[in-house]
Amino acid sequence: MIQVEGLTKFYGEHAAIRDLAFTIGQGEVIGFLGLNGAGKSTTLKILGCVLLPTSGRVVIDGHDVVSQSHEVRQRIGYLPDVPPVYEEMTVGEYLAYVARLRDVPAKATASHVGEAEEKTGLRDVHGEVISTLSHGYRQRVGLAQALVHKPSLLILDEPTSGLDPLQIVEMRDVIRGLKGAHTVLVSSHILPEISQTCDRLLIIHKGTLLAQGSEEELSRSLGGPSIMLEVRGDRARALEVLQGFGAVEVLEGTGGVLEMKVAAAPDLRPQVARAVVGAGLELLRLDANEGQLEALFLRLTHGQEVRA
Ligand SMILES: Nc1ncnc2c1ncn2[C@@H]1O[C@H](COP(=O)(O)OP(=O)(O)OP(=O)(O)O)[C@@H](O)[C@H]1O
């Protein structure tokens, strides 16, 4: 459905993205993750036909985004980081207006608008003026305008940005509900927001693709689950005890407190605790680290900093 090859964009001398390559299959929900400035918006703008690449190729449903942008635009719905809404219109008027812009036949406009409102939970505010809506509802209107022409691909740039925790949960549910009917590419810099919604993640950092796969695949490739500990006592003794459970990494060792990570299954926590205390060491903290995406993402991006 989407093929990206060697995608590069320079702003003047600065490469915002460099040599990106990935493919996305029909019906997948993909999370595009990266810290601020990683290059997410730049990539999504190119996929959304609002920015030309410096080099490389993007093909969506067999159509090139540069030479066949008209065909591509018919197949995509794009929610930019700032939703393009006309505040003085009602929700219904605005969505009907966007439907007309996207070549939805006049006879089908009402049903398209109704369906978009249904999918995004906007039915109750159909007649409300957009300027009177909360930020969360406006964001839904932004999403509804992206899907009113029933595109096969939805490109959503940080759809949860600026929402409160409840609105984030609601937006996540809305996006999850789109699965099946649409292929979805959704960006975020806040990982827990995206990990529950997406089938697969693309992690971008400083304009390059660091890793891709499901959360489980990414965790596995990085060594799988582990146990985190804070221990006070003799370093050599602590290493000796913990090495019996798996590879040990000492992350910090100031003020006599050792922060340690043991590559071991979280269900070994009771045995690890007994061994540490039995060896005369003080156990200050013991956590399971089940390859949570947040930790994973920080490790990936931090590792990249170190290698750079
Ligand atoms: N119009 C522009 N002109 C010059 N540089 C730009 C422009 N737009 C983005 N950049 C730079 O390109 C890099 C990538 O920006 P981009 O907006 O794609 O990142 P992002 O991952 O979407 O970050 P954010 O979440 O902060 O929007 C950044 O260094 C940014 O400063």
Automatic annotation (TrEMBL):
Transmembrane segments: none
A molecular function (GO) term: ATP hydrolysis activity
SUPFAM superfamilies hit by this protein: P-loop containing nucleoside triphosphate hydrolases
Keywords, comma-separated and alphabetical: ATP-binding, Nucleotide-binding, Transport
KW ATP-binding (keyword) present: yes
Pfam families, alphabetized: ABC_tran
Residues of the ABC transporter domain: 2-231
Record-linked InterPro entries: AAA+_ATPase (IPR003593), ABC_transporter-like_ATP-bd (IPR003439), P-loop_NTPase (IPR027417)
SMART domains the UniProt entry points to: AAA (SM00382)
Gene3D superfamilies recorded: P-loop containing nucleotide triphosphate hydrolases (3.40.50.300)
Protein family according to the UniProt entry: Belongs to the ABC transporter superfamily.
Protein name: ABC transporter ATP-binding protein
Species name: Corallococcus aberystwythensis
